[in-house]
Specification:
ARM-type_fold, two-stranded antiparallel ribbon, 4 strands, 999 residues, 50 helices, 2% strand
Length: 999
Amino acid sequence: MDSSRSRNLTQIADLERSSENFECSGEPKNPNQDRIWKVLNQTLINIWSNLDNSSEALSTYFGSIMKTPMQFILFVVPQCHCCNIHFSKKADECLAFDTWLLGRMLCVLSKETLTGVHEAALKTQIQILNLLFVTYPPLYLNIMKYYLLCMQDLMEVEKGNISEFPLPLRHFIPKMETFRDLELDLKPSFLQLHSISGCQHLLAYIMKVLQKSATGLVGLHRDLQQQLWGSICLLLSGINYSLRAEAMLLAAALINAGGLPPSVDSQIGFWHELWYCVEITLTSLSTDSTGKEQQQELIEALKALLSTTVEHMHLVRPREREVLLTTVFNIMQSRLCSTMCGMQDSVSKFSRQVLENSTDWKLDKCSPQRLIDNFNEQSCHVMPGLKYLILHELQQHVPSVRNLYQTKHNGSCNYHVLLQPPTSPVCALDISPSWRQLWKHVLLASNKLNQDTIAAGCVLQQFQVCRSIVELSLELTAEIENMHVKQSSSSIIQFSYFGDNLPELAISVTSAVHHCRPSRCAEVANKVLTEALQLLGTVVSLPEAQVGVDIAEAMLSLPWLDPDDNCFGFKAEHIIFQIKDEYQPHLDSVIKQLCLSQLALISSKKHISWRQKIVEQCFGSPDLCASVTPVIPWLLYNFEHPVPSSQLMSLLSPIFQSPDSKVQLVLAKYLCAIVCSLSGNCVCVRSVVEGNVQRKLLCLLCHHENWLNSPFPYSGSLEGQLLCLTPFLQSKEVEVRRYVARALPTLAGHLSKFRHCCDLTSWMPLLLDEDREVRIEFAKHARWLVFDGCWIRDKEQVSKETGDEFIPLSQLDRHELSTSVPLLARFSDSLVVAARNVLKQHGDPRQESLVITVSNIGCIALDCVLLPSLLQLVTLAGHWRSAQAGLVKRCIRDIAHAHNVTPKDLFHRFKPELCKLLDGDIASINSLEPGTLNSLLQSILGGGCLPVPPWAHYHDDHDNDYDDTDYDDYDLENLFAHINYVTSCEASSYMIKHLIFFF
């Protein structure tokens, strides 16, 4: 045995040495490839003589294949390129050898005594198959057929059609058992399977191979694909949990590769068997505590399959989406979904994606009653179906919603009806049977919460049910709002569809919190309070929650509530103050931050002064100050404008002047929202992202295509605070610098005197910031430090409409220029200093932001910016340390386009200045007298006569008379020869070359 092992290892070492000189040869026979075949064949034959005891030798054998270089792996691919006859012969030989080798590896996988090398055999097969797919697909497809045939035989065992063992698999049979020229023994070793478990193990390994080779399986013949998907469906209906999981992973791999079932019937069968598999598996495992590991394996496979389907939903053709809809309805109507630990999120995303990609809500196959019955805190996957079910009922009964639905999906509607809000409030309970049934859950929960004997666990459950329903109503509101045209009102549109009995719900929640006293169980009481605050925050965020929610707002103000000072009119013996006394020790910073985040969601303008007072009380703590800063834009949004200066400063001064890094970061993030909310031109926009409703303020001035200016009543008050932003520009936190750079256009757009109150020199370091994102953000917006934003927008609009290069200046233009030109001069000087710094090192990455800055200045529709911008760009492009030549070329084209001219027009207009610039730069490089090259450059670049130097070499077809040649057709070699003759410096030629290249 030892001698056999030694002989095997010697042959493997010889195999590895053979790989070192392996090369693709044009000979009809490749001796290196033939030698490798021979060594591989003899080594494996020797190992096969004592296969059950050869784990170590097999591990070394597979390892030698995996570790060798790529050219050695090419032994599996035909290596003959001299003629078709020899190549065809070599391809047949290669197919025979690969079939023999992969068949032997499959035999290893079938041996239960060789489990230690199964993983190595699997990886080696996958690598060989992937290489075949990339380099020679026909050979790959031929071999994959053998795997599929083996899979079909094993499926007969699963069906119960085969019960006799041992079972031979006779598919990996080489067409040539021996090579005549080579002494290779390619006799197949048929697999012998002795048990059902052995068949199942081998079937699992074959599916693993197919998973890793799924990309190539898409190219199989339609019939083979049909058989493959049929096998997957059959495995899903089997009883083996591992095979079900592998079948799901194989289906996910095929879908990821773009290979859906080839027919609608196949898809129907697949999705039906998929859900049947999940259902029967959960049924059998729900009472089996020993199957947790198998259950988790199946759940993870199902999650992978659903996630892959969501990502590739675009592959589903419209006529096949009904299949997915049916699957979604089966999922949502199943009573077993609540037992799927960890599955709710994946199922919910899958259901939502299918429903949102459907062109029509075909909900007739979905039982509303089953959806309602399955609704509980663990079945969030039901929510998408309920949402579309209720929307479907609304669009059937409410003309405005129906018109909005048609607008969203068809792009055509009656716009007169669209722009008219409902003439009277519409109650969803009157027109949506599903909503009426769902709201019964709220009433039932409300009644339970009012009972003194209710258990704390039941309270939490009822809170979660109510919160899910209220969040659903908020999501429905957002869906309807997003269909509407945005209007410049305090809110896009108000609906009264879903705000039924909200005040009563708030009272019930408060009562339940009072019953769950912390003295009984502090931990449970804290959970109850947290859930109650989140539920009440969702209630007050509904658009229709304008009246009757005082208790909800008072509960959210609980940490700061005082019987002697409250705006709600509650007496000292009110239940709210009893709750505060009981929970006072538990109202820590976490609860306070939760309350602040929920107070920001209040859409009502009532009690606005009380919320401001709470905000001001939080300024004393740095942590709470950072938490309360996001509330300020919403507070300002709900103010009646104009706000008194003293009231405004009491809100803004503490956060603008805070030295705390957390506060500075949050302020920088919400700076734009604060400024926009003060403009009085914001609307509240709700968007639904994966089932979560997100709210933000949309400024109609910043997002309007013309960016029209409007009176801003707080310039004097706010501009004084902007001086406090100076430390932000040098903040150590890169996020702070990023947010401030992004806020530049908002500040300049709303504040007419922003250019005067800001310090230009304090902003310029952002141009050379160490962070690229900071540099690029500042480069895109730096021009607002020099020019008034609204005035520039107007000038650009006029230039675009008229198409004129020069626009006559009005009195306003002259006034603005008198202010902007001095700032432009200072800004240009700063750019020159920055250019010197970035050109000290070749390829400095900061050159990019400098070029973008100059380009954005040059694109302004003003004549005064052209020459400084072009001179700076030419300097940046021509310097021998520059690495931004291509970017400068695009920027010059952009500048020319912005001024309605061509780059050539710009060059001829500023030719004297450009030549003077080049003369000075080249003279400084070569220690020449200024003016030495000026006349020569103007003659060359302007179309003058250039004498031919005696050392210049020309091709035979060149003409030496250049007097009548246009500047674009000049011989660059002749030009560079003259420059080098005068300067003897390659850097000078580099500069001229780029100038010619750009113009």
